[in-house]
Amino acid sequence: LLFSRKSSRGDFVFSADRLIRLVVEEGLNQLPYTECTVTTPTGHKYEGVRFEKGNCGVSIMRSGEAMEQGLRDCCRSIRIGKILIQSDEETQRAKVYYAKFPPDIYRRKVLLMYPILSTGNTVIEAVKVLVEHGVQPSVIILLSLFSTPHGAKSIIQEFPEITILTTEVHPVAPTHFGQKYFGTD
Fold first, then answer.
1. Res 129 pLDDT > 90
2. Distance CA 134, CA 73 (A)
3. Where would I find the Phosphoribosyltransferase domain in this sequence (predicted)?
4. What's the CA gap between 77 and 169, in Å, rounded?
């Protein structure tokens, strides 16, 4: 449904949201946690886990914003930053136009959200901006729905410590994702 030109927008968004939720939940599974004990409403003790403080999401605008609700559905009060990067049509060079992060992002684990990883250029620029703000690549987890082998390889070559989570690695990525998801196609 996400690759088909004939999919309705409703079917597309429904399927995309399902995949987003799965990738977000796996990303959250990668974050550090501590064990804790709580008392249930019936008075019993329950041994569980809770996230350690210091996590945040960063969406690469605009398609990455499609993943924000999935993150908020799983982690209600998580801080979310944003980066706007545009690629030049002719040179494919990415340029940063806007970046807004939690002030202490350098102390946080970062879930970087960008659903379609094609060339990797946009993500590489986003990671460079995060590094300029003191974030170590080893604490960045890229959440992506679809990745090309070239895109994933480009990112790993530039930042070997980064973690990439995706649902599929395939030579063809649905580059129309943002337009279809937001209804601007």
1. yes
2. 28
3. 5-170
4. 31
**Residue 59's pLDDT is what?**
96
Phi and psi for 12 in degrees, rounded to 5?
-60, -50
Question: Distance between CA 134 and CA 139 in Å, rounded?
Answer: 11
If pLDDT is split at 50, 70 and 90, which confidence band does 92 have? low
Long-range contacts, stretch 150-154, CB < 8 angstroms, 24+ apart = 150/118, 150/119, 150/120, 151/117, 151/118, 151/119, 151/120, 151/123, 152/117, 152/120, 153/120, 154/119, 154/120, 154/121, 154/124
- Specify the fold of 9-182: Rossmann fold (3.40.50)
119, with CB counted inside 10 A (0-12, 13-18, 19+), is middle
Average pLDDT over residues 146-175: 93
> What is the pLDDT of the chain when averaged over all its residues?
91
DSSP state of 20: H
* CA-CA-CA-CA dihedral for 32, 153, 69, 167, to nearest 10: -90
Pairing of strands 109-113, 45-51: unpaired
Q: CA 116 to CA 166: how far, in whole Å?
A: 9
| Helix, strand or coil, per DSSP, at residue 33 | strand
